[in-house]
User: Fold this.
Amino acid sequence: MTSLASDTPAPDTLAPGTLAPGDAGTPPAARHLIDGTWTGEPTTERRNPARPAELAALSPSGTVEDADAAVTAAARAQPAWAALPAPSRGAVLLRAASLLDIRSLDIASDLVREEGKTFAEATGEVKRAADVLRFFGSLGWAPSGDVLPSATPGTTITTRREPLGVFALITPWNFPLAIPAWKAAPALVSGNAVVLKPAELTPLSATHLARALHDAGVPAGVFNVVHGKGRVVGEALARDERIAGLSFTGSTAVGLHLKGILDARRARVQLEMGGKNAVLVLDDADPGAAAAVVAAGAFGLTGQACTATSRVYVTPGVRDAFVEALVLEARAYTPGDGLDGARMGAVVSEAQLAQDAAAVRGAVERGATLLAGTHDVDASQGLLFPPAVLTQMSPDDPAATDEIFGPVVAVLDVPDYEAGLAAVNSSRYGLTAGICTDSLALATDFAARAQAGVVKINRPTSGLDLNVPFGGVKDSSTNTFREQGRAAVEFYTWGKTVYLGV
Ligand code: ADP
Assistant:
């Protein structure tokens, strides 16, 4: 068996292809990383969603005892890690970033095989994870805290940010490398220890991150990974009183359940959950450009992003030209195997494929018109779902209100800007919102009044730079601490004010 989590790091000897599935006839195997040691019998199988006959990965299924051991190790290791100079902590992240760069080809290939996205999306994600580690690694050198004047003579006031201790990170399968990286990096550079519980469907990507950090010299116990079921490992971490805070990305139902547990003991919690992101297309928009913006947001990443576009409101003057252009765009996103150069990747699981098909079928049965795509899919040759464009439905149709998490877009007619803005804001979610218009006045008004954590003007709802605060409102997020960029550090630290009299 090719072991992904080798005890002999030697990063420079990892030639591309070393870990490729098929080596010695077995797929890569993920392991837990607990207290600096790779453990766990990798017995859980993961199949390649684009090629269901192919075994993509093996991973261990963690127990409550594994979670307990990881938290014990993290609690023991954290004080010494916090006592290191911040640039020394940052240096570990910078070395890990270089290792991700060196191993990019292998990691991206594993990511495609276990998650199904395209190779371009996967290499972009590996680069993003490396850049995130570089961004937060370099913060080890950045100024931190303020110097404030005091009304008392001979007194200087400073502010400091202190680490909280041990953080649990529970992450989803859709960005299985980048999300763990953008949660772990600010936690680590701030002096915390981490226990990561990655999604069951994507164990290899998280293990690649763990291996990069391990090989970069993160001390034993400071970064731990425990694979396994959410309701076993994730639940055990959430309930462990030694966990000072939890950062979660996933479904709204699970997120709110975890928040109840953390709130009960006043631990810190950050949730990034669902979305039903809308774009408003106005008469003055170029229909072709607007269709390209909507298609990139709706069909990129196979629609499997919490920031994906899934509702479009369009005003009468541009409606027909926009819909015609969107259907052409949709037909150009042909799904296939990401390692064969497909424009659109596979759907992650049979359950997700069934959810995508059921959403489209339900809308059609209620009277919607399906202009592109199908709800009649055969999963035996791969979990492939062509982009779907739905029109002529009620604004209350579930396809227009519920998160689907697939390449399905509902196009709804609105009479004017005000009605469109009201429709955008009618959702229970508020993650991202977009508008396509040439009007500076309306774009500015939309930026102010859209109920969403991120507003995109003439740009796809999905895709963010790594340095921007990210999070939503309403049922999309706890709407307290933001992720990513410098803002992320606030969640992983607490503020202290120091008076110095000399
Ligand atoms: P998705 O629908 O995207 O899989 P989930 O919310 O089910 O979203 O899963 C996101 C993450 O939460 C995964 O790592 C999963 O294992 C974990 N998880 C699921 N249920 C629980 C739970 N009851 N407690 C803790 N973690 C959970």
